[in-house]
Design goal:
Structural class: mainly alpha
Number of helices: 3
Distance between the termini: 38 Å
Largest sheet: none
Strand content: under 5%
Helix content: over 70%
Order of helices and strands: HHH
Radius of gyration: 13 Å
């Protein structure tokens, strides 16, 4: 049950990342990469906060990142 809650909270976190990335369209790539790393670290800490093991927290974080980027490709690049 904890992993499901962490997954949902991390998806909310990645939604916030999308919003911040959208607001910073004119920033350089290095700053966007640093922002991504910071959000990834916060997502990992969130998983650890819910008492997941380090291995499970890492896999959950990587899974939410993968789901985020797949959904981003499917929905953001979709044009009518």
């Amino acid at each position: 049950m904890n992993m499901y809650i962490v997954f949902l909270l991390q998806m909310i976190l990645w939604s916030l990342f999308s919003l911040i990335e959208w607001r910073s369209t004119h920033d350089h790539f290095i700053f966007k990469a640093l922002l991504f790393v910071m959000f990834m670290y916060v997502a990992f800490l969130l998983a650890l906060r819910f008492r997941l093991t380090k291995k499970r927290a890492c896999w959950t974080t990587l899974l939410t990142i993968a789901v985020y980027f797949v959904c981003r490709q499917l929905f953001w690049d979709y044009r009518l």
